[in-house]
Amino acid sequence: MQELETLIPPNYCHYAAGPCDQLMSASARQTVFFAYPGRPEQISATVEGAVTRLRAAKPDWEWTTWKQLPVVGQTIFCEICKAMRRSATVVADVTTLNFNLLFEIGYTIGLGIPVIPIRDTNYQADRRAFEELGVLDTLGYIDFVNSEELAGSLLPRLPSVTLPPPTPHEFRETPLYVLRGPVETEGAVQMMSALKKSGIRFRTYDPIETPRLSLHEARRQVAGSTGIVANLLDPQRARALQHNGQVALIAGMAMAQGKVVACLQEGNSAQPVDYRDIVQTYTNPNNISGKLQPALRRTLDALQEGTTPSLGDLDILERLDLGDVAAENEIGGLKEYFVSTGQATQARQGHARLVVGRKGSGKTAVFYDVRNWIGRGHDRLVLDLKPEGHQFTKLRELVLLRLGPGLQEHTMVAFWNYILLGELARKALEQDERIARNDPVRHEAYVRLSEVYLRHDPGGDFDFSQRLLMQVDAVTRRMQDVSGSDMGANLTQLVYSGDFRELSQAVSEYLHTKKSVWLLVDNLDKGWPVKGTTEVDILIVRSLLDATRKLQHQLEAHDVTFDCLVFLRSDIYEHLREETPDKGKDTAIRLDWEDRALFEEIVRRRVKSSTGLDGVFRDVWHRLCVPLVDGEDSFSYVLDRTLMRPRDLLQFLRSIVHIAINRGHKRVEEEDVRQGEHSYSEDLLLTTSFEIADTYPQYLDLLYAFDGSPAGMSKSDATDRLVNMAKIPEEEVDRVLELLVWFGFFGVSAGGTAEEKYAYDVQSNLQRLMYPLRMGDSRVVIHPAFRSALGVTN
Fold first, then answer.
1. How far apart are CA 126 and CA 124, in angstroms?
2. What is the pTM of this model?
3. Of 106, 325, 417, 530, whose CB has the highest number of CB atoms within 10 Å?
4. Which of 284, 309, 334 is the last residue of a domain?
5. CA 499, 504, 506: angle at the middle one, nearest 5?
6. What is the CATH number of the domain that holds 260?
């Protein structure tokens, strides 16, 4: 018998825009509902044939398909909703990536009703897209090729057991969960701007950072949120199928739980019938803010209600919250459990201009730590900027096409100098508005600065990303109206929209009232392909650094201490050094995680924060996980299967904890670690493949050439696989091998029995690894993190 809770009409229904107006009827028999697409017909016919067989085998059960529902004259989803609510189990066909089905699966999961996914293994359409989606992996598919096989496989799975509830955690400080897409469209920029302006804080899922979202994590995020917001991509865009499918699934979960749901659709694409009434389309991105307002108002209303669930009676695993793998989603939590390393201390002291680290090494966490450490006060000013490389596209193309090398750099430095001065002026005016009224000395300089900045202000209530885009557009327009021969003589007027010297003087005079000024710049290289950065990209970074040095000299001439930190990926920094004549001009802090004790401290602090469990790391860890896995210390087993980055460790740990909770375990068992390893390995394999393909699209399937290979092999054996299976031209093999070593896929073992070393062991100094490989005195070894997904033999 179904649970009575699912038969209670919800207090809020998106279709009714208020309380549900449907009557929910119970069934006296065990009910199984089948959801499947009408096409392809051969698949739907197979499912219906299986239902006929099941009715004959279990006549005392009620077997229902969506085609039997009385949908004439009714809202179709209302009938489907009632059928799912009265069912003990929902069987859903996922042979194809059908958005209606994904929405219905998400809705069923949100209701807490068991779902059994089924798929025809011989039907290849959408197979790759579904693997990349990945979120349903842990439900356990039933594979079939005919109705007899499907019916026979289903019966042992019935009655099915519902998933355990996700860990209770209400994100009251960041109540919105935003699903970003893999493409940063203009609509996405406007959506993020509208959310920032609303004052409602939010968390984001970014597929560029984490290509696959686990089901447990999706359920946890939805359950703890007040609402979700997503920007659906035009179907013609790359990876739109996977992203829009993921949104459909999560929107279904959220709707079932009465959350606020706002889905914006780029273009005028027809929407799936189940949820088309809640999708708002737009062709002009400037209309997005207005379309979001109703959802934002409902979110604010909902925040006035509700209470935080109690953790007192839960098991440790259910109380455990490891935080978000993306630092920007846990700014508050970092204040409590950030691990202060020597590099973080150096950054606070202003002993460098650059903070450099691999993707996922914690650069953004250090960014927020420095910002928090500086603190607030009228005697200091902190300007924290997060420009993104794509915002320079127009200016980059124009500078590259119309200017010679000397003018290119001069133009970019001037542009950065202008942007930074304008942002410093704006920040000072916003921060000191109140105190300037009561301080006669400061008031005069404040009024002067306000009058000058007004002549340079882009206008309107825009955030930094929008202001930056507007300034880029303005410079581009001015340059397009000037011939190439006149460009050099008029460069200053082209870059600046007003009297630059006047602005510079006003900023310097006002900041003289401050003891210190800090500039923090993060995300500049976000979205830039790994190991594929262009010379013009590096020009953007180098000119920013030159502009900060000029700004430092200018402010220090007025007795103002100026510190600057620019956060960069390691590959961008290496490229920058190669193209910078004076390589020691900018000191860099490298975020290398070599000390295993630091990883232990990361886990210990997060465990203490969410569970209250305290003590030495080993005692705490053994409360959470079995001591040994395959005879090896369990924490070392996990850490050795990461690329030695905090983000990797947290992803692996979340995977094994979620699996243990789903299986009803009080702590993580050996089999949970192995299953979690496979899921993490699949995610890392997919992430790395995408990162490689960003720069070398022809290498998308490169890593799969080592499917089923031995873990260690000679250079010649690795070359054979690259040439014969990945179809790499022989003249490109050495470059590809170096690429695989850089990404950490390959380590190098020099000599017969030497332990392999990976790029992170040598601070990305690839020469130390590639030299013995070129000399023929070593072999390559596939990193343990990738072995499970590829079925690599040890």
1. 6
2. 0.77
3. 106
4. 309
5. 100
6. 3.40.50.450
